[in-house]
Amino acid sequence: MATGSARAAERRFQLLTVLMGGGRPRVDELARRFGVTRRSVFRDLEFLERMGVPIVRDGGRYAVLDTFKVRPIQFQPEEVLALMAALDFGQRKRPVGGTAARSAWEKLLAVLPAAQQELATGLDRTLVVDPIQAYSLPPSPDVEAACRAAVEGPHPLRILYQSLHADAPVERVVRPYGMAYRGTALYLIGFCELRREVRIFRANRILEAQVLSTTFERPPDFDLERFLSDVWGIEFGPLMHVRVRFDREVARLVRETIWHPSQRLEEEEGGAVILRMEARGTGELARWLAGFGGRAEVLEPPELRQAVLELGQGIVRRYGGA
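That's the GntR family transcriptional regulator sequence above. Prediction below.
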């Protein structure tokens, strides 16, 4: 949900676009179009004039001088590549961007100079950014809007939350500190008054959300990016010093991938490699390591080694009689 100043900035940009379109609208028409008062429209027109836009008034109709042009945005080729890659990913992962990403792509294309338009159009045909096959279902629009409004306030948020392993949903009050996409899933991060600690809530498991009228102060030392940097995926827990030996058969893959910001690699004789890192999330780490089969061995911590062992034993029990 946008703030008042953000909404005004967006409206003024849209107003400039309308005036440059040549329709010569009246103030009443503009007020109806943008859902504001005539006074707001006059303020927006005055703002554009202060910014140097040559507004023309003719019999109660408004336009912009034909000679006025918005200066084209000059991007370097590598900047165009970065933007197109991000928008391509957003289009393919509907919860992240979807139609909004496509709309942004079209707007970007409209303001690029001819040479950069040609480059961007070519990339649209030849570039695919799709690193994740599966994507998370999005939360309901009402829930997502309530989460964003609560974060912006900031206001406490009353939620009905269905956790992954619980039989029934539980009502909680959360003081939201921020939101984050991990993969393509949207999460709400905040202080849970029920558990009395900072928790991570997957947004599509929030069945109902109500923004409360009160406000609160976020801890001044809380940094959302730093909070999430230690987490392997999204599962929180105690910080662990992790040490895993990968056999030669998978060592090349381990070497060529940044799995975690804190990772460090140690080469061993025979081609094996040891990965060290400080991370949280025993369950997620165990499931990742189990995917390497017998080619990865947890050296520490013991609780992670035990979690991988239990996964393996469960697989053997399931398939042992086949």
